[in-house]
Structure formats: structure tokens, C-alpha cells
Automatic annotation (TrEMBL):
InterPro entries for this protein: Rhodanese-like_dom, Rhodanese-like_dom_sf, Thiosulphate_STrfase_CS, TST/MPST-like
Protein name per the record: Sulfurtransferase
Gene3D superfamilies: Rhodanese-like domain (3.40.250.10)
Organism: Actinomadura livida
Domain Rhodanese: 34-151, 184-290
Pfam families referenced in this protein's UniProt entry, alphabetically: Rhodanese
Keyword list, A-Z: Repeat, Transferase
PROSITE patterns: RHODANESE_1, RHODANESE_3
Length: 294
């Protein structure tokens, strides 16, 4: 395998910095009631549909700051993919504007299933923030529990976050191809996109040869909350992904694959993210394309 940074050891806590990646609504509510310093990031985002900022303006967790996945968490689309890694200075500036500091817990949420929130979680961890958690169940879980929301945009004191890239493992196209044969490469897209039956976004349909399909919808229940770790371990084990092998994940543009990385993390399986994903893979016509179930 050829990841552009090394895979962490399963037991070293390298992917979470010693902080559990999820937080439940009651626990977050207790922190906020105690006035524990927490940076709340609203990461609601929709691949097709109204911009997330519109949802934020209609109501958000009190004190939450909106972060735009396209503008703040990814670089400009191009040969590197539709949501490539941002430049360190750009990501650092965006997080500072949102109030992110080195010593303060960050809690990020989206509508419910953590798809966008996981990409923000992964990005902050990749750039070196040690204390980041995703609100399990997101905005829906918060409101269903009867907690208040706000339409006021908070005055944000700029943070002091310093970006140190490379703290989580990533894959390029070469590394993804190698991992598909020498380890386990998971394709996090819906089954019909994996099989090449339809491709609503990218110019070529199909998947990386040797990749195994693991749609991110299977990581969560109907309420958007992640499945228990033992069920996630069982799910990934059926696909051949365990902590005894090198594992990686990709999707269309590195967003839902970050959700897969989070689910793998919960299952105790370190994994590398192919950030460019399918939208990068298909920019090179020499890269092979597979269709069907295999």
C-alpha cells in the first residue's frame, strides 16, 4: 500500500487524540449548561438541495457557528477532485474565523446522519486538532430531545488554531489502487453508483477495481445515529475489513468516505481516506474502471 502518510496503530488512539469521536445530546447539553467552553460548528450541507446556510439561519444550536463544507473544509474543485484537501493556511483561517482554538473542545453537527459533520471532524483531526467530537444524531436529535434552538448568529472571538497537516492517513490514486488488492478498499457510495448503473455527478460510472461496496447508509440507524461498535465491527468484518489489515475508504468526493472513516474508527479499525475519491480517479483516463458487483 502507498498511503501518503502512515496508518496509525490500532491501539495508539491516533485517530481520535484520546477523545471519543461522538458525543450524545444529553452529554452536550450538560457541558453547555455548565458553561464548559465548547466551539459548536454547524456543518449542515446538501449535495443537491438548498445551501446549508439556509438551514442554519432557520434555526441552529445556540452559539453554533456555520461552516461551509465547500468553502471552508475543502479546496477548490479541480483535478484533485470535487472536495480536495484545502491548503493549510486556508483551513486554518476558516477555523479561526469560526472560533476554533487549540485548547477548546469542538463539537460539530449536521442534520442527522453526520455525513457532513464527519468530514469536518476528519479535517480537523487531519490538521492536528486533538479534541473534536460529532454530535450523534445531529440537529434532529437535539430538537427531538426538546432542547432550544436559535436564529441569532453569535459574535465569534477568533480562535488560535494552528494547522499541522498529515495527522491522519490519506491515500492518493496509486495508493488506493494498491490497497484494493493488498488490503481492503471500501467504496462508501450507494450500491447503484458502485455497480455503475447510474452516476449523477461524475463523468464516468463504476468503481475502483477490487474495491468493496459499503454504503455509508449502513453505518447508521433510521434516526441517523451510528450503530453500536459491535454491529459496526460485524458489518466491516463481513467485508473483510478488520484491524489486522490495511483499510481505506473512498466515495464520490471524499465526504461520505470520511463518514466511513469515522464508522471504522468506532469499530476500532484504523483507515486511510482517499480524499480525491472517484472524482479524482476518473480524471486520469489510464485508471481502470470496474462495473457490476466485483
Amino acid at each position: 500500500m502507498n498511503p501518503t502518510s502512515p496508518l496509525p496503530n490500532p491501539g495508539d488512539g491516533g485517530q481520535t487524540g484520546g477523545v471519543h469521536p461522538l458525543i450524545e445530546v444529553p452529554a452536550l447539553d450538560r457541558l453547555l449548561r455548565r458553561q464548559t467552553p465548547v466551539v459548536l460548528l454547524d456543518a449542515r450541507w446538501h449535495l443537491a438541495g438548498p445551501p446549508g446556510i439556509e438551514s442554519y439561519r432557520r434555526g441552529h444550536l445556540p452559539g453554533a457557528v456555520f461552516v461551509d463544507l465547500d468553502r471552508d473544509v475543502a479546496g477548490p474543485p479541480g483535478p484533485g477532485g470535487r472536495h480536495p484537501l484545502p491548503e493549510s493556511v486556508a483551513f486554518e483561517a476558516a477555523m479561526r474565523r469560526a472560533g476554533v482554538s487549540e485548547d477548546r473542545l469542538v463539537v460539530v453537527y449536521d442534520d442527522a446522519d453526520s455525513t457532513a459533520a464527519a468530514r469536518v471532524w476528519w479535517s480537523l483531526r487531519y490538521f492536528g486538532h486533538e479534541r473534536v467530537r460529532v454530535l450523534d444524531g445531529g440537529y434532529r436529535a437535539w430538537t427531538e430531545a426538546g432542547h432550544p434552538v436559535s436564529t441569532e448568529e453569535p459574535d465569534v472571538k477568533p480562535g488560535d488554531f494552528i494547522a499541522h497537516p498529515g495527522r491522519l492517513p490519506v491515500l492518493d490514486a496509486e495508493g488506493a489502487a494498491e490497497l484494493a488488492t493488498a488490503g481492503v478498499l471500501l467504496d462508501a457510495r450507494a450500491a447503484e453508483r458502485y455497480r455503475g448503473e447510474q452516476e449523477p455527478v461524475d463523468p464516468v460510472a463504476g468503481h475502483i477495481p477490487g474495491a468493496r461496496n459499503a454504503p455509508t447508509s449502513g453505518n447508521v440507524g433510521v434516526d441517523g445515529r451510528f450503530l453500536p461498535p459491535e454491529l459496526l465491527r460485524e458489518r466491516f468484518a463481513k467485508l473483510g475489513a478488520t484491524d489486522a489489515l490495511d483499510v481505506g475508504a473512498y466515495c464520490g468526493s471524499g465526504v461520505t468516505a470520511a463518514h466511513e472513516i469515522l464508522a471504522l474508527n468506532l469499530a476500532g479499525i484504523p483507515a486511510a481516506l482517499y480524499v480525491g475519491s472517484w472524482s479524482n480517479w476518473v480524471t486520469d483516463p489510464s485508471n481502470p474502471v470496474a462495473t457490476g458487483e466485483n
